[in-house]
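Table S5 (text form). Sequence records supplied for joint modeling of the two-component complex.
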Amino acid sequence: MTEHIDSIRTYALALLALLALTAATTLVAFVDLGEFSVVAALAIAVCKMLLVALFFMHVRHSTKLTKLVVLGGLLWLVILLMLTLSDFTTRGWIGVPGR
Amino acid sequence: MASALEEQFDTEAQQKDASTLGMWIFLITEVMFFGGMFTAYTVYRRAYSDAFAVASASLNVTIGAINTAVLLVSSFTMAMAVRAAQLGRRRTLVLFLVLTLIFGGVFLGVKAYEWNEKFEQHHVPGPSFHLGGVPQQGHAQLFFSLYFAMTGLHALHMVVGVGIISWLIWLAHKGRFTAEYNTPVDIAGLYWHFVDIIWIFLFPLLYLIDRHLPK
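The corresponding structure-token record, covering 314 residues in total, follows.
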């Protein structure tokens, strides 16, 4: 593996994008988007996460094994959230005796 | 430092790949650790959305946004420190590590100010808790329990990070890191950026719930 060294310009642009997205998420929270407020907030947060992971944490220059581990970790997080929410969001669907 | 290569590795590159992978495995366990709290947050926000919206609106969004920016800048200076280490520039490395330490310290200072405000306003869960405009005080207490647990654990990670960076500054000052051997700086950078990512999610989820609603 030859080490890849990014330019100062790359890091500065990533920082500017991150600061702009922080301003965007703050401002968009004051706009009435109904249910989509959460979607907008999380979409911007995921974009910021990708910027930090790919540029600051050098995932884009990482080995395939490291990339696989990162994706695998996120997959387990999704399993945690999905299984828990599939329980809590569906509890009201069927009448439960005694409840 | 003639060679930092341990005997179980063939090359320095292989050794560095192993260290990077090990750090990522640790970070994934941290993702699951914080993930449990994010899951609890999601469940209760769904259940008590009205109380959560009012409680979230009581947080200072300006301070929160500025502190987010401070943390992002500290991530940038950390990335620049790693770059300086890769290029073997000792003085630049020390400079950027010190800057990272300063921005991290500013973040923690602002956080301490915010927590102190919560104590003064009786927004800390407990017998004297009171939040105006919420009929169900228990639901609002749940929001602040999650707020203190999540920002508290995040701040604890920051404190550990500050300790690690202080130690790196000492080693870098002694000239321990070269263009060939800088793995500790790289690995500490991964940790620092990870803590940044946790805050990237905490900020909108805690500070920005239904801000558009009239309170």
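Note: The mean pLDDT of chain A is 91.
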